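ok here's Steroid delta-isomerase, seq below lol
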Amino acid sequence: MKKTPRHGADRLETIENRLGAAAVSDATVAHRTGVVRSYIAALNAANLDAVAAVFSDDAVLLDPLGADPVAGLPAIRAFFANGPFLHPIDAALDGEVRVAGNAAAFAFTAHSDGKTMRIIDVFEFDENGKVSRMVAYWSGANVSTGGR
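and the structure came out like this:
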């Protein structure tokens, strides 16, 4: 039996049903978007305390996905202090933050130490509005030289 593609009102109804199942309030979207913006600002300021403030005490980082997990706030602080914050960072969002379910996804570009990195991060949030899991999507293919 051949399936016919959905068009028009049928397609819109399907999208609306899917959105309803993953709906989040405007306040939740605003909070999660604010957390992402605070994180980017903290990277730019090399403010370890502000970076740590977005994460829960038992948060886990996979940066990048496939790397060994960085688990717990002390390890997260050490990760940033001994890695990203060794050189000044100039980071900026590439487009809007996407929020669905308990997560926020965002693309950003970071310039540091003569390199440019194009990264997508996904933050998963706990019931207290803190980031409980961060997964960074990037590889060598997303790093180029000649950045700021």
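fwiw The first helix runs from residue 8 to 21. kinda neat tbh
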